[in-house]
Amino acid sequence: MSAKVTISFAVPAGYKPGDYAVLYSNNGDGDIDWETPVSAEKHQLFPNGAGIYGYGQAPYGQHRYGQAHAVLCSGYGQLPYGQHPYGLGGVLIQAKVNVIYCGIYKFGFKVFDSLGNPQQGSSGVIQTAVHIAPPAPLGLKKVSYTHGYYTITGQCDPDIAGSYAVAGQHNGKDYYRRLDGDYYIYWVPEDDRWYIEDALQGGYPPFERIDASPFGEYEPGTLGEGTPVFTDAAAAANQLVLEVTA
Is this model's pTM higher than 0.85 or not? Predict the structure, then answer.
């Protein structure tokens, strides 16, 4: 069995026609291997002429008062709303990757010029937790498979209760995201505590926990009321139900 991951990159200003990006990954463990690309595919940063051109580089009549100008950038199918133009990107490139193993996957694009020379730096690294249901052993049939989740319970305001799953790593430890994506549980080493918030280190966490473990009771923080409880790992076991084939 496998899962498909889609990685998007909003191309910023500063590149030229002919520049391209190549995708790299950590294959589900550790840091990204920047020497071995996921594939040989080259993602053009100016596909079909679309992109941000600097002054003197844009086709005649298509630059705006000496500033970079996003040619063919309308936001309709090119970029998500609000991400165009003026230095924020003129094109959204995407790569789709099939993965067959569970793990914490990290991805990043490395940019090359038209001659194949790598440019300094890379795009921001993104990561995601991938969980794939196991196949049934030979001679058995899979009846059901339930992916275990961690749970927050208790009456609290804001209402952060619900099911959470590991979504990656932050500050060197696993962080957790509610399944609807509205809340996160993350570790901040400088404060020596865990926080629950609607963004990773957004600045106003309503709940916090001073402990090495994220599991247990949380105290009200900024604008929070109540004492929610985050379940331990034993309550989050995966359940695979099998039966003998006839």
Answer: no
